[in-house]
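Input structure tokens:
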């Protein structure tokens, strides 16, 4: 029996087969889950990547900044699954002005986009999928990058992640009575497409390799995927509002 046998999951954020979301979807399927993906923009690209999964899943279009698509999401998902037991929020975006060292210059218009897509969308996605959760509840899981400190070049995305971490706690408070757990995985730096969009990303990598007591392989997404699948399973029944660090122990070390 797999860890997610019988579970129905929605996984967002699959862009390439090197993305964290793809690895989560792959491992979830291997552990028995039925998976549906969402895509945004170049849907044909997401559909092509989806075919690389063990069982090619359906792909539903979703722009988390589009109220109409959010309002219709539950109905459109209902064409493929009869409910949900888990949702993976792996969505983040910031305009170029919000990254790379221009913290003091980024205009509110760009900052607001980063916050809406990277922070507020966790709440938007939770509300949009809520009708599909049954009486037994389930799990909502998001991805963060340690927002307790300021990182070079991360700028307003760091602020957005801090908001995401706070939003996850408030969602845990609101959805707990419905038996829905809300947690985040805080991963170390990985060479995904999202990472490539961050100027000076190598500075993160250099720091990690020297300080993480367990070491850190920035090309190995498997540890993050395994931790995510565990949190989506029934093996963490009383864990919510939590941030689980999967970073080789970097976060716990001093200089």
């Amino acid at each position: 029996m797999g860890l997610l046998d019988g579970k129905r999951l929605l996984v967002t954020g699959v862009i390439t087969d090197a993305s964290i979301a793809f690895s989560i979807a792959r491992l979830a399927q291997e552990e028995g889950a039925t998976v549906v993906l969402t895509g945004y923009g170049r849907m044909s690209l997401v559909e092509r990547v989806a075919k690389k999964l063990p069982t090619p899943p359906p792909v539903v279009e979703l722009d988390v900044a589009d109220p109409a698509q959010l309002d219709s999401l539950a109905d459109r998902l209902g064409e493929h699954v009869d409910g949900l037991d888990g949702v993976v929020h792996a969505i983040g975006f910031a305009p170029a002005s919000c990254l790379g060292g221009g913290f003091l210059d980024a205009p509110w218009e760009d900052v607001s986009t980063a916050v809406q897509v990277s922070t507020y969308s966790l709440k938007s996605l939770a509300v949009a999928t809520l009708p599909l959760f049954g009486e037994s509840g389930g799990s909502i899981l998001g991805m963060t990058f340690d927002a307790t400190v300021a990182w070079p070049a991360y700028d307003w995305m760091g602020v957005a992640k801090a908001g995401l971490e706070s939003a996850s706690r408030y969602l845990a408070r609101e959805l707990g009575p419905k038996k829905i757990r809300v947690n985040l995985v805080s991963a170390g730096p990985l060479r995904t497409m999202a990472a490539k969009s961050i100027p000076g990303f190598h500075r993160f990598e250099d720091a990690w390799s020297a300080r993480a007591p367990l070491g850190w392989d920035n090309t190995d997404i498997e540890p993050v995927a395994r931790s995510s699948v565990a949190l989506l399973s029934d093996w963490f029944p009383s864990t919510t509002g939590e941030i689980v660090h999967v970073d080789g122990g970097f976060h716990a070390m001093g200089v």
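The longest strand covers residues 180-187. The chain has a mean pLDDT of 94.
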